[in-house]
Specification:
alpha/beta, seven-stranded mixed beta sheet, single chain
Length: 216
């Protein structure tokens, strides 16, 4: 189940499937899906797990149904790279898009989108540059402050470090600072980077099927 917090006076649902939802606006926010990343690595001869695209699309479908979102906003890095646009990957996403034809889709371009290229027009995505503002919120890829708005972004693939020594764990997290909130990477094959919270920041870790507040 999702945990609901407040940002800029608006409720924000934090889902353990590494996505967030603005229920009042009906927006599901997904950062750093990196579709095709595993394929891109395999094209370079690196053995990596298969089935990540199917797993990510299944999780997205569940999130759309559970959240009741009317629009999915990808906060950058929808596709990983041009050489990751394998036919099987693109066809799987196209089929998934057809299954959710009644849900609007928007991409806020990120750094990987510049190299990978925009999604095909047939997918019916609205493509915008950052920041894309929704009331007091600025939806971005890069976690950089925007004057007069609270930023929700991706790019950093945040993780919290729990414990120490052999019991040390790195868990994906939502990192909500004073001016900028960063979502965890949605993609199943993306890597993570540890966050260093500032005083007053809020950190919510994802542990299996739960979102939990982390004392900071």
């Amino acid at each position: 189940m999702a945990m609901t917090v407040a940002v800029a006076g608006r409720p924000l649902q934090l889902w353990p499937q590494r996505a967030a939802c603005l229920p009042e606006e009906g927006l599901l926010l997904v950062a750093d899906a990196h579709f095709g990343k595993a394929q891109a690595f395999r094209a370079l001869g690196v053995p990596v797990p298969e089935g990540t695209t199917a797993a990510n699309l299944q999780a997205l479908s569940m999130l759309i149904e559970s959240s009741g979102a009317r629009e999915v906003v990808f906060l950058g890095d929808l596709l990983h790279a041009r050489h990751g646009r394998a036919a099987a990957t693109m066809e799987a996403i196209a089929r998934w898009r057809t299954q959710h034809a009644n849900v609007a889709m928007r991409l806020v371009r990120g750094n990987h989108d510049n190299g990978a290229g925009d999604p095909p027009p047939a997918w019916g995505f609205e493509i915008v540059d950052e920041p894309w503002t929704v009331g007091p919120l600025a939806l971005c890829h890069h976690p950089v402050p925007v004057a007069g708005a609270y930023v929700l972004a991706g790019h950093l693939h945040p993780a919290a470090v729990i414990g120490s020594g052999i019991d040390r764990l790195r868990l994906p997290c939502f990192h909500l600072g004073a001016e900028v909130g960063v979502l965890p990477a949605f993609g199943a094959f993306t890597g993570m980077h540890a966050v260093t919270p500032a005083p007053g920041d809020r950190v919510y870790v994802i542990a299996q099927d739960e979102v939990r507040a982390l004392p900071v």
